[in-house]
Amino acid sequence: MLRNIFILIAVSLLNSANSFAQTKSTSEPGKTKNLNTGFYGKRFMLQLGGGIHHNTLLKITSSAEKNLRNTAYYSRYKDQIKPDQFNYSLYGNLGVVLKERFALSLDFNYYMGNTFLTNIGRKETYDQMGNYIYSPGYDSRVKYTTLRIMPRIEIGSKGSNMPVGLVNVLGLGIELSKLKSGTYKSISAYDSYSYYTDSTQISNQQLKFEDEFAFNLTLMYGLEYRLAISKNIAWNFGGYVHLNIPIQELISDIGFYDLYGNPNYNDEYRLQLSRYRAQNLFSVRTGLVIML
Question: Residue 213 and which of 21, 125, 244, 269 are 20 to 30 A apart at CA?
């Protein structure tokens, strides 16, 4: 038994030595090629950082935002609530360099923003006599979060050595956005008689939203410049154009009613949020690139 073990060990050592000799004699060109693929032969990258973007199109086109700025009904509210038009994000990215100017990566973004929703918590019911009863809700700027997951193709410009240099980025991903329940300063007395007057009441209201996501499909093009600090670390600066397609509109119930004919308001709020995300067209971000 012991003899057989020694024989197996000897055969293994001989095979290993033979393989090593063959590898040493044939791998020099491959070794040079490997050094040319990736910055100093670094084939893998990890990016970490943060970003910011301004809701430019939203500020110009959204009727809710226009009313918040211009209509007498909102005049008191806009003095008490900061019209924050910026969203902020944290991101992480995992990538692999396949050729000198070509890489694939998987991008994760976590956005933190706010949107202005109208008539939250309104009620439409009928009494025992069949009379229609309408209870107005609230208008309020509420917070939301978005998680975006995006596979990306990265193409380096001429003269770059991935992952450093000027890089063109193409991405197709999905966004999952969620409204955050909480206490918000809100406008009450929303009805057709007081809409265009200044006879409004502003109070803190506990607004609750269902813990469900609104969906968007995101197409993106970006330019990133990665400045090498050392052989293992680079600094990334990026600017992006993205089209957030509100696929929530395709999957929402027509008319926002459930199986019993009752209004499905949360579905409507998710659609408002999805449309809001569709109006975020530009963003910038910066962070570190760790090359492995």
Answer: 125
The first and second tokens of residue 123, run together, are: 């009620």
Q: How far is 12 from 48, CA to CA, in rounded Å?
A: 44
Amino acid in the structure at residue 286: T
| 254 phi and psi angles, rounded to 5 deg | -65, 125
Q: Could you tell me which residues are beta bridge partners of residue 51? A: 89, 285
Residues 145/180, Cβ–Cβ less than 8 Å: yes
Output the pTM of the full model: 0.75
Q: What angle do CA 223, 107, 85 make, to 5 degrees?
A: 70
CA-CA distance, 172 to 155, in Å (whole number)?
A: 15
Query: How far is residue 187's CA from residue 200's CA, in Å, rounded to a whole number?
Result: 7
For 168, counting Cβ atoms within 10 Å of its Cβ (0-12 exposed, 13-18 middle, 19+ buried), the class is middle
Amino acid at 232: N
Residue-by-residue DSSP string for 77-125: HHHHS----EEEEEEEEEEEEEETTEEEEEEEEEEEEEEEEEEET-EEE
Q: By C-alpha distance, which of 241, 267, 245 is closest to 254?
A: 267
Distance CA 106, CA 185 (A): 38
pLDDT digits (tens, 9 = 90+) for 169-197: 999 999 999 999 999 988 875 554 444 45
